[in-house]
Amino acid sequence: VPYMITSATLMPETLTDITRTLSLQGKEDCANIQIHTDRPNIRICVHKIKHPLTSYADLFFLVPEGWVTGDPAPPKFLVFFDDIQDAIAATKTLQKRLPHEVRHRIKWFNSDMTTTYKEAEVTHLRTGLETPGVCVQPSHSVW
Fold it and tell me: Is the pLDDT of residue 9 over 60?
């Protein structure tokens, strides 16, 4: 039975526990791939929550108030949520801050969507041509 275990923050002792629990120690076909996440084009930011969570007002810095077509594009962003419905609601809230003709450019996606759609949106986010921002409920099948 093949396993794929992913984590952005897996501690060494947790990895040891997992490999022991799943009897993966010493397996020839077992690979541990670690990639450093320090990338010059990715910035992690944390903001203290000041508003009710369901207002999504703490995300407003992502789409400046009064932004209009022709203004410099806001920086690309990716916001993670624990719940699909929260990701959708946050997306719709941020879309309302944009002119109607470009609201569709901020997207959400999750594990319920087709692989084709998800791959296209990742491409759009990377290029920045179509999608400046995504609100996502992550799962192993999203990326």
Answer: yes
